[in-house]
Design goal:
Blueprint lengths: L7 H19 L3 H12 L3 H28 L10 H16 L5 H15 L2 H17 L8
């Protein structure tokens, strides 16, 4: 596929997105998916390190991540969210829960941009709304009045 147009942490998020997509859609174990992706893409070590951090946070917090998403998307069960959007949301929430050096606003912004690139324009707004509400629930952001 070739993700040569992405660099740094954006590339890490895109690689994590593919691994999570494969995990969710094909029931492929995350460690097998990412190993295959690394063999194909041959990313720099810093990209691998951050990708692994994301995936470790997803694995460690998946139940909590899915619960937060499900509670936030009232009347729209987790399984009804497209696989790509669900994977994007999981990455952003995993960053908020498990990667302290990434500000929540960066996680949300990156998720919106990745949704616009790999899903639809509407997905950007959808992802933004869900992640904003999750940031409020997690105490990162004040509710706007």
């Amino acid at each position: 596929m070739g993700y040569y147009q992405f660099t740094g942490r954006r590339l890490s998020r895109v690689l994590a997105l593919e691994a999570l997509y494969r995990f969710d859609l094909l029931d492929e174990p995350l460690n097998e998916a990412i190993k295959d992706i690394y063999n194909r893409e041959d990313p720099p070590e810093d990209v691998k390190k951050f990708t692994n951090k994301i995936l470790e946070s997803v694995k460690a917090n998946l139940e909590e991540i899915d619960k937060l998403i499900d509670q936030t998307t009232l009347n729209w069960p987790l399984e009804r969210i497209t696989t790509i959007d669900r994977s994007i949301l999981r990455i952003a929430v995993a960053e908020m829960l498990g990667i302290e050096e990434v500000p929540f606003k960066v996680s949300i912004s990156e998720a919106i941009e990745i949704a616009k690139l790999f899903s639809t324009e509407e997905s950007g707004r959808f992802v933004n709304g869900i992640l904003d509400n999750i940031a409020i629930k997690l105490g990162f952001k004040q509710e706007e009045k």
